[in-house]
Write a structure and sequence with these properties.
This protein is of the alpha/beta class. Helices cover about 35% and strands about 20% of the residues. It has two domains: about 200 residues, inorganic pyrophosphatase (n-terminal core) (Alpha-Beta Complex); about 110 residues, Diaminopimelate Epimerase, Chain A, domain 1 (Roll). It contains twelve helices and twelve strands. The strands form two sheets. A six-stranded parallel sheet has the order 3-2-1-4-5-6. It has a six-stranded mixed sheet with strand order 7-8-9-10-12-11, sandwiched between helices. Helix 2 runs antiparallel to helix 5, helix 4 runs antiparallel to helix 5 and helix 5 crosses helix 7. It starts with a helix and ends in an 8-residue tail after the last helix. The relative contact order is 0.11. The model has no long low-confidence stretch (mean pLDDT about 95). Bound molecules: adenosine monophosphate and manganese (II) ion (2 copies). The site of adenosine monophosphate has 11 residues, from strand 11 and strand 12.
Length: about 325
């Protein structure tokens, strides 16, 4: 038996033996975080396990993902929750679990399921595979080990995870395996048109006004190798966009030709949250880690104290300028 099969079996056994499970993904949840949390919660409930799906930040799902089945069952991790097993999803280290960090570290058992290359293996079991395109893809692989047949609600949630983390099946993590798993999810009942419309064609007018500002401020640096833009708290007040509507905002500027890296800086009163995307193989994960954050080689981020100018002063020298 391969080590991977054994690990999948161990994870499934451990989950099924638990009395009560809390599931939580990273702060500022994206499609993989919400889709994976709801998909696993649904599967485990089907196996008769008591499950509490949690949010590491905030108290409700981002509006984009509120349509997913079970989204209304998500609870803030700040509520009084008890569990004998905690499952951390898509979170490479406990700090990314935000409000749920202490609950995770104090749980009797902690299982980590993730695909980040910088995962700290902080669980008693760690189903971590950086070749997986999304945490939701790993959960789809786990499904038969839980004794579950493929079915439509899990397929919907986990397809959303896979679709969003692969940039609608366009990034380098769109492997043959990812597409095979996506095909299985469609066979199991994930409706591609419906899910695509909910996630990508359901944006508020305010969110589009924010896109216009972001593109309007596009700036080139490092001899044209880098493009960046920024938004600040005034932009939310003036456009009516919500902070949670910025998940894909960086995609609006990554489309520009000729650059090796793109940055979007979200400025608040004393800190800046930075999203980085690489093109042409540059490793922005390394840059993000240098500045206190993390992520993948092609998509990474960090939060830094300071102003737009001071953070740009730290960031730009680490990004490509020649070649
Ligand atoms: P984002 O730009 O927020 O979409 O994040 C892109 C990737 O970077 C995701 O894989 C995140 O998990 C990771 N990431 C973003 N911000 C941070 C952070 N502050 N610390 C660690 N990883 C981060
Ligand atoms: Mn994520
Ligand atoms: Mn992910």
């Amino acid at each position: 038996m391969s080590g991977r099969t054994e690990l999948l079996e161990q994870v499934a056994e451990t989950l099924l033996a638990a009395e009560s499970i809390a599931i939580c993904a990273h702060v500022d949840p994206d499609g993989d975080a919400i889709g994976s949390t709801l998909g696993l919660a649904h599967l485990l409930r089907g196996c008769g396990v008591a499950v509490t799906p949690l949010l590491a930040s905030g108290d409700r799902a981002p509006a984009t993902y509120a349509f997913l089945p079970g989204a209304d069952t998500l609870q803030a991790a700040t509520t009084n929750v008890t569990c004998d097993l905690f499952v951390a999803l898509d979170a490479p280290d406990p700090a990314r679990l935000g409000d749920a960090r202490d609950l995770a570290l104090n749980a009797r058992r902690l299982v980590v399921i993730d695909h980040h290359p910088d995962n700290k293996y902080y669980g008693i079991l760690n189903l971590v595979d950086e070749r997986a395109a999304a945490t939701g893809e790993l959960l789809w692989e786990l499904l038969p080990y839980l004794g579950c047949a493929p079915e439509s609600i899990a397929a919907m949630c986990l397809f959303t995870a896979l679709m969003t983390d692969t940039g609608r099946f366009s990034y380098g993590n769109t492997t043959p395996a990812a597409l095979r798993h996506a095909a299985e999810m469609i066979e199991a009942g994930a409706n591609v048109v419906d899910l695509y419309r909910h996630v990508y064609e359901n944006r508020s007018r305010g969110a589009l006004a924010l896109v216009a500002r972001t593109i309007g401020r596009l700036t080139f640096a490092n001899a044209g190798h880098v493009a960046y833009s920024w938004i600040d708290t005034n932009d939310f007040a003036e456009t009516g966009a919500l902070p949670e509507e910025t998940e894909n905002l960086i995609d609006e500027i990554r489309v520009v030709s000729g650059v090796d890296a793109v940055a979007l800086l979200k400025v608040s009163h004393d800190s800046v949250r930075v999203s980085l995307r690489a093109k042409n193989g540059y490793d922005v994960g390394l840059v993000a880690r240098t500045l206190g954050g993390g992520g993948h080689a092609a998509a990474a981020g960090f939060t830094r104290a300071g102003s737009l100018e001071s953070v740009l002063g730290e960031l730009l020298p680490l990004l490509p300028s020649v070649g």
